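[step 3/7] fold_predict: job queued, chain A
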Amino acid sequence: MRLPFLDRHDELSRLRKTLRRREGTLAILYGRRRCGKSRLLSEVLPRQAVYYVGDDREGSLQRAGLATEVARLLPGFARVTYPDWAALFDRFWEQAPPGTVLALDEFPALVFMAREIPSLLQKRLDHPAHRRLHLVLTGSSQRMMQGLMLDRSAPLYGRAAEILKIMPLQAGWIQKALHLRDATQAIEAYAVWGGIPRYWELAGEHPDLRTAISDLVLSPLGVLHDEPAGLLLDDLRDTAQAASILTLIGQGCHRLSEIAARLQKPATSLSRPLQRLTGLDLVRRDVPFGMHPRDAKRTLYHIADPFLRFWFRYVEPNRSRLEAQRVASVAAEVARSFNGHVGAVWEELARDSVPWLHCADREWKPARRWWGPGLDRRPLEIDVVAESEDGQALLVGEAKWSEATAGRALVQALRHKVERFPHIGARQVVLGLWLKAGPSRIDDVSVFTPGAVLRALR
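[step 4/7] structure written:
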C-alpha cells in the first residue's frame, strides 16, 4: 500500500525555495529511519536531478552506481571507470547544467566507506566556479549526520542553507492514511504504529489492527519484529546498554534510581546513555508541571515512541514464546491489556492537543503532567495541566480511555483534585476531560473525544 503524500508542507516549501536559488546550495535532511525522507525528496526533486542511495559496498562499486545514475542526465558519464571520488565529482561539477541537483541519500553509508567525501564536497561548494549546482544530503543515522554537519570541526559545518530534521507525522494524519472511519480506531492504530509513515503503509495492507500486529510485529518472520535493533544500530555504538535501558523503562522502571538498581550500575554512569536516547527522541524526560526541566530528582523517563513502547511491552518479554511460534498466545495477551497501553498513549495525545484546542476561548501553552504531594500532603496525580498564554488561567484535566458513563463522577473527582493542587494561585481554573466517547460538555466541563484530538493534531 502506497500512502498519499501527507503533511510536510513546511518542509516542501523550504526545500523548493532553496533549490530554486540561482547560486548552488547545500540542503540537509536527517531523522530516524522510515519517517519519509526519501519520499519527501521524490516530491521535491526537479527533473534535472541525480538521486543516489548510499550502501555498504566498496567505494569502486558505489562510484559505478552513482555514475550510472548521473548517466541518466549526462549520457556517457558511466562509460568511464573513476579511480576515486575526486575524479567523479570533478567531472560532474564541470558537465552538469546549472541548477542541477545532486541528492545523496543515506549519506553516512557513503562516508563510512570513503571518509574523504565530505571534504571533497566542501571544496566544490566553496569554489566560486562550482557554485551553480545544488547538493542535498540525507541520512537516517542522526549521530553521524549531526557529526558531519553540526560539529564545528566537520568540513561541511556552516555551509547548509537548510537543515531539516524529519520527524514522525502527527497523529491526526493516521486516520486518512489508513482510511479509518472511526477516530477511536485511529487512536488505537496510532498507539501501535506511532507517526512512522512506513509502518502505516505496512499496516494498511492488512484487514484489521489485530492481524497487522500479529503478522508484522509478533511473528518472528514479521518485517517489524526486530525493528528496534535496526534503529539502535543506526545511532549507537553500545546497543546492548541502550536496549537494556529501554527494556527496563518498558517494564515500568521510570526513575533513574530504579533503572540503575536493576542494571546494578551507579546512576551516574547512566546519565550519558539516557541523554543520548533522549536526544534521539527514543526516550522522553518528564518533570511535573511548574518544576524546572532539569529537576533530576523529580524526573521520570518514558519511551517516547508508541511503536517502541508497544514492542518493549509485548515483544521483548515474550521473545522466547514468539520464537516457539506461540504468536496466538501472545496476541491474546496483547488483547487483554491493550486498553491500558492505548490509555497511556491517549494521555500523551491529550497533552499534545492542548495548544491547538482553544479551550474556553483561550490560547494555551504546552501541557504537562503533575505528580507529588497535594495541599493535604497526600499523593496527587493530574494528567493535564497547562497555563494560558496570558498567564491568567490554568487548564486542569484528566484523560481516560473510557466512555463517559461515569462522566459526572469524573468531573467531581477532578474538582476535588483541583482543591488539593498546590499550583493554582490566583489564576482562573478551566476544567477539561479527554474521553474515548461522550458529549461535548458535562456540566460546565469541556469534553474532548478522539475526533477533536485528531483534528487538533494535524
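[step 5/7] annotate
Residues 355-456 form a domain with the Trna Endonuclease; Chain: A, domain 1 fold (CATH 3.40.1350).
The mean pLDDT is 93.
exit 0
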